[in-house]
Design brief:
Order of helices and strands: HHHHEHEEEEHEHHHHHH
Structural class: alpha+beta
Number of helices: 12
Radius of gyration: 52 Å
Strand order of the largest sheet: 1-6-2-3-4-5
Number of strands: 6
C-alpha cells in the first residue's frame, strides 16, 4: 500500500488531510484553504450589508468569529465544497431524500467524505478496492465490498454526516496500479494514539530490561565491589587455614597410632629376644629412630598450634617471629602419655576454630 497517498493527522488540519487523501496528492495547504474561507466570509458580509450596514443584525455579524475557519485549523463544509469545485467535483448528502430516490448502490460510487463534529476523513475506491483514508489512522485501511454498506451505516448510526463526491477525480498512480492488482491486508492499521502508547510501552519495557541487565552485570563477578572481594579473600584464607589444620591433625593421629603399634611390637620383641638376638637389636634400633621422628613432629605441631593460638589472642603480635621452642619452653611430649597428647591437640584445635569464628563475628 505504499503507492496510496495518506496524510496523517497534524493539529486540527483534518479538512486539509481529507481533501489531499481524496485527490491523492498535496493539492491543498492551510494557506489556500484559509484564503477560500476568507472569501466565503466576505461574501457573507456583503449579503448581510444589503440589509443595511447600520442594522443591528449587521453589527452583530461583524462581532462574531468566522464560521468557515478558526485558529485551530478547522474548516467548514463550505470551504471543502468550494475547494472541490476547482476540480469540477460536488458534494451530495448521502442520506438526503434526493440521493436516496436514485437508489444507487454505494459500491458503484467512487468516494465519500465523512464528518463528525469537527473531524473530516475520506473513503475512496482505488482500482477495484475500497480504502478508509482516515488521517487518524497509521495507514490506509482496506474495506471489502461486502463490508462497505455496513461501514457507512455504522458511521451514520454514530452521528456522522456522509457526503457523496460526484465528478471525475484526477488520475493518480495508486488507482492505475490497483486496477491491475489486488492487495491483501494482514494487519489493520491502528489509531495514531494507540501506536504512540504502544511505542511508549515498548520503550518502558526496553528501559526495564536494560536496568535488569545492568543489575545482573553488577553481580556476574566482573562488577564485584572491592569490599565484597576483600571479604571473599578473607573467607578463602580462613578456609585454607582450617584445611591445613585438619591435615596436620590427621597426620598427628596417624603418628600416634603408629607409635602405639610400635610399643606393642616392642613388647613382643622383648619376649622373643632370647631366641633372636640379632633381629631384636635391629628392631629396637628402628623403633628408637621412629619414635624420635614422631617426637620431633609432635613438638613442631604443638609449637605451631601454640603460635596460632597466641596470634588470635594478640593480633598486634602477628608479625613478631616466634619459634616453637620458645613458645613451648619444654617438650610437651616428655611427661605426657599418647592419649593425653591426642586430647590436648584436639582441645587446642577446637579452641583455635572458636577463636577464629569469634574474630570473624567481631569484624
Amino acid at each position: 500500500m505504499e503507492a496510496i497517498f495518506h496524510e496523517r493527522q497534524e493539529g486540527s488540519l483534518c479538512a486539509q488531510h481529507c481533501l489531499n487523501n481524496l485527490l491523492q496528492g498535496e493539492y491543498f495547504s492551510p494557506v489556500e484553504l484559509s484564503s477560500i474561507a476568507q472569501q466565503l466570509d466576505e461574501e457573507e458580509r456583503m449579503r448581510m450589508a444589503e440589509g443595511g450596514v447600520s442594522s443591528e443584525e449587521y453589527r452583530t455579524f461583524l462581532q462574531q468569529p468566522s464560521g468557515n475557519m478558526d485558529d485551530s485549523g478547522f474548516f467548514s463544509i463550505q470551504v471543502i465544497s468550494n475547494a472541490l469545485k476547482v476540480w469540477g467535483l460536488e458534494l451530495i448528502l448521502f442520506n438526503s431524500p434526493e440521493y436516496q430516490r436514485l437508489g444507487i448502490d454505494p459500491i458503484n460510487e467512487r468516494s465519500f467524505i465523512c464528518n463528525y463534529k469537527e473531524h473530516w476523513f475520506t473513503v475512496r475506491k482505488l482500482g477495484k478496492q475500497w480504502f478508509n483514508l482516515n488521517s487518524l489512522l497509521t495507514g490506509p485501511e482496506l474495506i471489502s465490498d461486502t463490508y462497505l454498506a455496513l461501514f457507512l451505516a455504522q458511521l451514520q448510526q454514530e452521528g456522522y454526516s456522509i457526503f457523496v463526491v460526484k465528478g471525475d477525480l484526477p488520475d493518480c498512480e495508486a488507482d492505475q496500479l490497483l486496477q491491475m492488482i489486488r492487495v491483501q491486508q494482514m494487519q489493520r492499521p491502528k489509531l495514531i494514539g494507540e501506536e504512540t502508547l504502544q511505542s511508549r510501552d515498548q520503550r518502558v519495557q526496553k528501559t526495564d530490561l536494560e536496568q535488569a541487565l545492568d543489575v545482573n552485570h553488577a553481580f556476574d563477578g566482573t562488577g564485584m565491589l572491592d569490599e565484597d572481594e576483600e571479604n571473599f579473600q578473607k573467607a578463602l584464607a580462613l578456609s585454607r587455614q582450617e584445611i591445613d589444620m585438619e591435615d596436620e591433625e590427621a597426620d598427628l593421629r596417624r603418628a600416634i597410632q603408629l607409635s602405639m603399634q610400635g610399643g606393642q611390637r616392642s613388647g613382643f620383641s622383648d619376649s622373643c629376644m632370647q631366641n633372636t638376638p640379632r633381629l631384636s637389636a635391629t628392631t629396637n634400633q628402628s623403633e628408637s629412630l621412629t619414635s624420635e621422628e614422631l617426637r620431633r613432629r609432635r613438638q613442631a605441631y604443638f609449637g605451631k598450634q601454640q603460635q596460632m593460638h597466641q596470634q588470635l589472642q594478640n593480633p598486634e603480635l602477628h608479625d613478631v617471629p616466634t619459634t616453637s621452642s620458645n613458645a613451648l619452653g619444654t617438650d610437651p611430649g616428655g611427661d605426657m602419655s599418647e592419649e593425653d597428647m591426642l586430647q590436648a591437640a584436639m582441645n587446642m584445635s577446637l579452641e583455635t576454630v572458636r577463636n577464629s569464628l569469634n574474630a570473624e563475628e567481631k569484624k
